[in-house]
Amino acid sequence: MIDQRRRGFLKGVLGASVVGLTVGSGLIPLRAQAAAEVANWPETAFKTPGVDATISELYGMEAAESDQISMDLPTIAQNGAVVPVSVETTLPNVTAIALLVAKNPNALAAAFDIPEGTVPFVSNRLKMAETTDVVAVVISDGKAYKATQNVKVTVGGCGG
């Protein structure tokens, strides 16, 4: 029985050494890259403060309120470091969904491109600095729509 444990341990150590050697030598790249091209990364939108300015920077238009966007998130978050949220819409021809947190230092929390023929549903966990509105923005037929829900944070997540 002890020999089996010892062999398992030695195999694990040997395997980890091989992986470490191949990553260290550059045979396997260490950095992960998103499927989309890096040129499409909305870097300035992630650095823009404020919801309306971020929507304008990200999509180049203003968003209208819509009752066809449903958000599922808690009204009271026990921990602002991990606030679960999901967004679903019945709007047609959805090409993008974004999640924004109004009072965070940077409002844009996540931006998703929705491929044609895909169900327009996203789920994520947000980090929230304080009690504020969470805004879901949906791009449908070339127009921007949004839904807003307030979340009360009892323990801060962003720097709190």
From TrEMBL:
Gene3D superfamilies: SoxY domain. Residues 57-158 form the Ig-like SoxY domain. Transmembrane segments: none annotated. It comes from the Bacteria. InterPro entries: SoxY, SoxY_sf, Sulphur_oxidation_SoxY, TAT_signal. Coiled coil: none annotated. Pfam families: SoxY (PF13501). This is Thiosulfate oxidation carrier protein SoxY.
